[in-house]
Amino acid sequence: MRKFLTIAVALLVTIGVVTGLSQAGSDDDTIKKVMKTAMKGDLCKRVADGKANDDEKKELLSLFESLSKTNPPKGDAESWKTKTTALVNAAQAAVDGKTGAGAQLKKAATCKACHSVHKGQ
Ligand code: HEC
After folding, report:
1. Residue 97 and residue 75: Cα distance in Å, rounded?
2. Burial of 44: CB neighbours in 10 Å, binned 0-12, 13-18, 19+
3. Residue whose CA lies nearest to ligand 1 atom number 6
4. What is the mean pLDDT of the chain?
């Protein structure tokens, strides 16, 4: 019985650790994907400059929505939420064709302001 319990506990701990790790891993993948496609790629810039079509605006919005559901590798969750929500709102404004959406997006997408707080190393 005792042995069984030990094994059961060990198993639970392993499952917990593995789930925790894969969770962190998938957040990391999501952030990197969004950075590559939207930020390092020119998607965000094209939308901000008013050069993107409707599909591109929607793609940017959906990328930022997935970004807002992640946890950052560094920095506190509250700050991450504020920054990623600003990105979602700006992309939404662009999709809705609101005036000032470009400026709003450029402000929300300030690379250094976010990297200095949330990007590891
Ligand atoms: C809302 C916050 C935020 C903004 C704004 C932001 N980044 Fe990032 N970026 C991150 C985080 C967090 C990481 C670290 C990802 C990781 O290592 O998991 C990152 C990583 C990166 C990477 C490395 C990706 C990789 O595969 O390792 C590049 C390139 C990048 N950002 C480009 C940009 C550019 C260019 C801009 C501005 C146009 C920008 N980012 C704006 C949060 C942001």
Report:
1. 33
2. buried
3. 111
4. 88
Residue 109 has pLDDT above 80, yes or no: yes
Cα 62 to ligand 1 centre (Å): 16
Q: Is the pLDDT of residue 13 over 90?
A: no
| pLDDT average, residue stretch 34-54 | 98
Number of Cβ within 10 Å of residue 58's Cβ equals 15
For residue 43, give the nearest of 30, 31, 59, 27 by alpha carbon.
Answer: 59
Q: How far does residue 4's CA lie from ligand 1's centre (Å)?
A: 46
Q: Is 119 in the pocket of ligand 1 (CB under 6 A)?
A: yes
Whether the CB of 73 sits within 6 Å of ligand 1: yes
